[in-house]
């Protein structure tokens, strides 16, 4: 009976969360924008509170505090002070230099909550950030460029798959923002494709209960049937390999930037994409080199194997 009530309550929270998103997409004033973000935030908090883990309780508190801080900056900046407004939205999104709270919160989330915080909870702040950036785009252009670089750099030595996806999200948000410079339709398409890839990732890792790279060694079920093919295609898509979804996502961004002659930014965004491809290829090697359960690897052998793999990947990039 308790579980039925719990599921009913969570479904109700999800409904109001989506209602908040719908309300925000149809808002025409700063107050309504702020209210819609608060609705989506308040109905996401129960997902974090209903878990009995101490770490998730702390994560819930951190999430609530930083979301409230972002809302305060957003309200203060709505009085024609768009720099403060944009800073508050970047705080809500967990972008550089405010990305540390997102890393801390994501470490203790299950895959379902992680999926919500990476997709549904980012819709409204991203939309409102684009509105604010119309007035101060040149000021924040360099900051988003650095955000992409930090996302690429942070993902290189991650063993936690959730941390890898958080850093990857920072990179993708920079691509989304740059793609919206010329036409907002590029953002809608990019975000839809990105959310679709996140759905596949959630279904895959949630079903197998995998949170760290080394767990792939002991999960033979991942290589059964066609799961390995789905994994390869998903990460190739995140890397931007043609003719997959990720390629078209980033190609649209490059076309958008080329229309306003941001060739310097185009060059460095391509370099950034090559850097983060290292992290995805490093993850894919775990699938290629999956060992049998009967092979019991000691901690020394595991560490030695990881170091050898990293050296090989660096040589490949060179």
Automatic annotation (TrEMBL):
Topology versus the membrane: Multi-pass membrane protein
Pfam entry (one): Proton_antipo_M
Similarity comment text for this entry: Belongs to the complex I subunit 2 family.
Membrane-spanning intervals of the chain: 7-25, 31-51, 63-91, 111-130, 135-153, 173-205, 226-248, 260-289
GO molecular function terms attached to this record: NADH dehydrogenase (ubiquinone) activity
Keywords (A to Z) from UniProt: Electron transport, Membrane, Mitochondrion, Mitochondrion inner membrane, NAD, Respiratory chain, Translocase, Transmembrane, Transmembrane helix, Transport, Ubiquinone
GO process annotations (BP): mitochondrial electron transport, NADH to ubiquinone
Enzyme class label: translocase
Keyword Mitochondrion recorded: yes
Superkingdom of this protein's organism: Eukaryota
This enzyme's EC code(s): 7.1.1.2
PANTHER family in the record: NADH-UBIQUINONE OXIDOREDUCTASE CHAIN 2 (PTHR46552)
Entry protein name: NADH-ubiquinone oxidoreductase chain 2
A cellular component annotation (GO) from this entry: mitochondrial inner membrane
Main subcellular location of this protein, as a coarse class: mitochondrion
Purpose of the protein: Core subunit of the mitochondrial membrane respiratory chain NADH dehydrogenase (Complex I) that is believed to belong to the minimal assembly required for catalysis. Complex I functions in the transfer of electrons from NADH to the respiratory chain. The immediate electron acceptor for the enzyme is believed to be ubiquinone.
Domain NADH:quinone oxidoreductase/Mrp antiporter transmembrane, residue spans: 85-269
Catalytic activity, as annotated: a ubiquinone + NADH + 5 H(+)(in) = a ubiquinol + NAD(+) + 4 H(+)(out)
InterPro entries assigned: Complex_I_Subunit_2, ND/Mrp_TM
Organism: Gynaikothrips ficorum
Subcellular location: Mitochondrion inner membrane
